[in-house]
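Take a look at this chain, tokens included, and explain the fold to me:
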Amino acid sequence: MHGDPADQRTIEIFAREYIRANGEELPALLFLQGGPGHHAPRPIVSGDGATPDGWLGEALKHYRVVLFDQRGTGRSTPVDAATPEALGATAAEQAEYLTHLRADSIVEDAECLRAALDEKPWTLLGQSFGGFCIATYLSFRPAGVAAALVTGGLPGYVDDPHTRIDDIYRATYAKTAVRNERFYERFPWAAERVAEICQHLDSAEEFLPSGERLSSRRFRTVGSNLGRTGGFDLLSYLLEDPFRGDRLRTSFLVEVAGLLDVAADPLYAILHETIYAMDSATNWSAERLRSEIPGFGEDEYRYLTAEHFFPWHYDEVASLRPWREVAEILAAKDDWTPLYDAHKLHTTSVLTAAEVYLDDIFVPFELSMQTASAIKGLRPQVTNRWEHNGIHVDGAEIFRHLRALVHDH
């Protein structure tokens, strides 16, 4: 582990490199994916010698691209929900291990990888949580960065000591409420259908294919799709015909299970609030703030929640039950390592461009713009053309634009 010479624990870091034909001499670009807890993309191309689609295909015109499994994910000493004991014999030891999976450690891994590859400073591309990692990179390891490109991932509060995790979640709930209302405006029947499903789940037992009982509060977490391109349509199809008689259709339950499953990436849930943790305990921020905005309370059936995880997840989700005590320890921890250095960000010479989305329910616009103003020379592009997942929808165009912003400085 980094930062403590006495800590002799080691992990393996996995990365793969993509190079276009005759592109061996191009500079390197490191992609930092969203998350936390997700591995790097596994691109699929249509045939031998074919060029990948999207941002990767565009990036390969200018760079050799390194796809990097962040620690704990993919092939980088992954954390498996089936074997939490592999991290330590006790919940306290397991929780302590997980504290080393945040952006600061990911950045140190990236620098170790760059040194092992004997690379010059590389360009960074970060999506969502990957953008958070870039802010940390610019804070502590700016010498390793030639330029930085961010899409949907300028974190809040890098320069404001008074802005903390509760402000983040308060903002995400407010944004999610607006998206709920827009969804109901587009599909006026959907609000009544959500309420009907929730009332049914509170009075009857319905089970997911995993055998887990589906509660109304867990069903309502399908709202993450409100913040993704195509999400309104996806939810409308889900809701349009959920019942057969007085029971929920099997196909409906199967689709809901697919939307809610975190078994393959348990860190996405376990670490979610820790990525915002600074010098105080997170103390289950999403749970505490849920009832502040009318419509989100557990006894209300109006709004779907989004990228919010709650203590009851560790009772209702089979793959998270082994982590309940660990999650409680992490929520109570109040001595986190720093993630950002405001002075370094104010004075950085690294050219940075960021795509900021007006209606982003995952990374609120107002807080992103505060951060944009705190990073010297950062060029923000504000748009409502894409949702948070824009890079997966029109990645080539987004990459071209971000690259142009830094090269036009």
User: Anything to note?
Assistant: Residues 35 and 66 are 18 Å apart (CA to CA). Residues 165-186 form the longest helix (22 residues). The two ends are 38 Å apart (CA to CA).
